[in-house]
Structure formats: C-alpha cells, structure tokens
Amino acid sequence: MAQPRFKRLGQLSAPLGALLEGEPSGWANLSNACAAVHSATGWHWVGFYLVDAVQDNLVLGPFQGPVACTRLHRGKGVCAAAWESGTTQVVTDVHAFPGHVACSSSSKSELVLPVRNGLGDVVAVWDLDSAEHADFGPEDVQAMEALTALLEERWSTWTWS
Fold first, then answer.
1. Domain for residue 160, yes or no?
2. Based on the structure, what is the number of domains in the chain?
3. How confident is the model at residue 97 (pLDDT cuts 50, 70, 90)?
4. Which of 86, 123, 137, 143 is in Cβ range 3.0-4.6 Å of 9 for a Cys bridge?
5. pLDDT per position as a tens digit, 48-57
C-alpha cells in the first residue's frame, strides 16, 4: 500500500533542505521545490507566483504542470487572497470561491501558502492545484507549511538575477 501523501511530503524536508543548502539562485531553488512536491504528490499544478512590487501584482515563477496564468491581480482569486491576508488558503471547490481565477479548467481544489522573507513580508505564494475536489487535508497543509518554512529560512540569502 502506498504511503499517505502527507507522509511523502514530510519526507521531503531533508532532501529539499539538502538541495537548497549552499545554492544561491532563488530561481533554481524554487524550481527544485516545485519538482520535488509535484513528484511526491501528483497534484495537477505546483508553482510559485512572486510579488511584483512595481506593478503591484503576482507574476508567474517556477512551476510544474500545464501552462498557467502569467499575472494575477490584487483582489482576484485564491493566490491574491493568500498574498493580501498573509494566511494559508484552503479551497475545497475553486468554482465556489468568489473571484476565482481559472488558469486551468482541470483545477477543482486549491491550497495557497504565503512565502515570507526575513523581514516577514509576503514575497511569493506557493500555489497547489488539484484535479480533485476537497483534496487538501489538514495533514497536507501542515506538511506544506513545514516545506514553506524551509524556503523562508533561506529566502533572503538568494539571488534573483
């Protein structure tokens, strides 16, 4: 019998931490984080949207999955809700979420976690989409929050060029 998904996610902490250790490129680190989570879960889409402070919106970053929306705007959708509130968003049915931005018609549920820099500012969101309704349980959320903390611990040391 396959291991529960949250356990597979929990087992990513050590290898993901090792991948991040000593690598200065934020782009490479976010790319590896996406690949690791996507491989462990099979979720429909796993990726990051980064805060573009100049344009005051979220811009697509590294991801695994089908083509995605390039920019997400304040006040629209689950990613914007996580960015603006600074809180994790768990949506069991994206079609029932007011203002949902449908980048893929296959997405049915969504988990979005804010990512903070060393100053506590939300600098990105980690967006996870599932093709199943109500696919994100409390254990998945807890495991993803632990993986997000690994990124946050190192964020301010990374370069973005």
1. no
2. 1
3. confident
4. 143
5. 999 999 999 9
Q: Is residue 161 part of a domain?
A: no
> Structural domain of residue 131, as residue ranges?
5-155
Predicted confidence band of residue 1 (pLDDT cuts 50, 70, 90): low
* Buried/exposed 108-136: b ≥16 CB within 10 Å, e otherwise: bbbbbbbbbeeeeebbbbbbbbbeeeebb
pLDDT for position 2: 76
